[in-house]
């Protein structure tokens, strides 16, 4: 088969372009007898008929299974070394009340990073004590609301926040659990925007200042210091960065424990997932085992008890659960440098429903969803409908060469930071999120309407006329 020279090195031309590699697609994605994509028994054409495109389709059982798997893997790995684990689902990846309920029913807690995320979790009926609260610039009113609601640990991210949280806690007559976010200085190998523990960035307290800052926290009787926290970044594949951070943190943890007991160590989230068949995610059990081994050997080297562990995965739970469906509108064969053709397949969404390719150069994969085809695979670029050239949904993928207007395109692994970072560029309405389970589909977040889009424009009177 002809491999297109415009294809990136990692992308190999497949023998046929209909397969659904299980490393990338949600557990319950499969082709039906007629060749259509079905997710949890609901076909792509049925989904498009009922909900239109674009639509985010979340495989409910997949999301819950991944939450359960991560919790189970960490529970058993750390039980082996005499410890326990609190798993916080990082709600920033994708949160709505339904997902909050799935996560808590699976035994997870929820990490929120704003009053809005907190409001969603509380609206879902999640007990406030099961929420952790992050952010490098929480407002006074966010802190007040959180403390008043009886939130679980607030992660202090700067010195000025100590007094703010202590004061709110005294005002509400509470002893507020707090963690301290440490910038471990570990250079995680990921996109620059996704690495959060390099020196030159906004999060946390440098390792070298941490003891003094914890001493300051401990002077406040309204604060209960539960432990230190580190999140080195996101979409990380190798364990070396996590291992390095855990080592650095445990040394600090040991020094802090010498003054008073420190019950917990929070290792953050950031576990990478496969977006294309070139990516290889770390098996969760392996990751949990290797972190447990590092924690065990470091604790014995330092002569301290193994603390309770907390982790905050988002992407690895929700990312692979979701597939976005689009409809193909136009197709152009573009001759590049006079030597090779790239097929531009334009769909009815784009950087408004998934900004990750434009923002991070993120790669995704894609398939035709409404049929299989034995046409020769051809190098395609799936573009959105927005007014800029960087509006790309899938930079490079081999699709059957007979892809045509009206085909449904499915893009897997869009569950994390897709809907969460969606926007209304060009006044596109945000698509609905539909959960599929055992042959049934239901909306868990409705899509926006044109009325929603106009509703905040102060120049429009209630009758719809402009003033
Ligand atoms: N904990 C903290 C403190 C975090 O800041 C994050 C992500 C997580 C946990 C969860 O990380 P995860 O397991 O989901 O990788 N918008 C970017 C990702 C930004 C991540 C922000 N913090 C993206 O689309 O790749």
What structural class do helix, strand and pairing data support? alpha/beta
The CATH class of the largest domain, by name, is Alpha Beta
Count every helix, treating DSSP H or I runs of 4 or more residues as helices: 12
> Separation of termini?
62 Å
- Rough outline: globular
Name the CATH superfamily assignment of the largest domain. Alanine racemase
Instruction: Count the domains.
Output: 2
CA-based gyration radius: 24 Å
Heterogens: ligand LLP
Question: Keyphrases for this structure?
Answer:
Lyase, Ornithine Decarboxylase, Chain A, domain 1; single chain; nine-stranded mixed beta sheet; globular; binds ligand LLP; 467 residues; 12 helices; 2 domains; TIM Barrel; nine-stranded parallel beta sheet; alpha/beta; 28% helix
Mind explaining what this structure looks like?
The chain has two domains: 29-59 and 320-454, Lyase, Ornithine Decarboxylase, Chain A, domain 1 (Beta Barrel); 80-318, Alanine racemase (TIM Barrel). Helices cover 28% and strands 24% of the residues. It has helices at 44-51, 60-80, 97-105, 115-123, 140-149, 159-171, 210-218, 239-259, 284-302, 315-318, 356-360, 450-454; strands at 29-31, 37-39, 42-43, 55-59, 85-90, 109-112, 131-133, 154-156, 176-183, 205-206, 223-229, 264-266, 308-311, 322-336, 340-347, 367-368, 377-383, 392-400, 408-412, 433-437, 440-445. The strands form three sheets. Strands 4, 14, 15, 16, 17, 18, 19, 20 and 21 form a nine-stranded mixed sheet that branches. The chain starts with 28 loop residues before the first strand and ends in a 13-residue tail after the last helix. The site of ligand LLP has 22 residues, from helix 10.
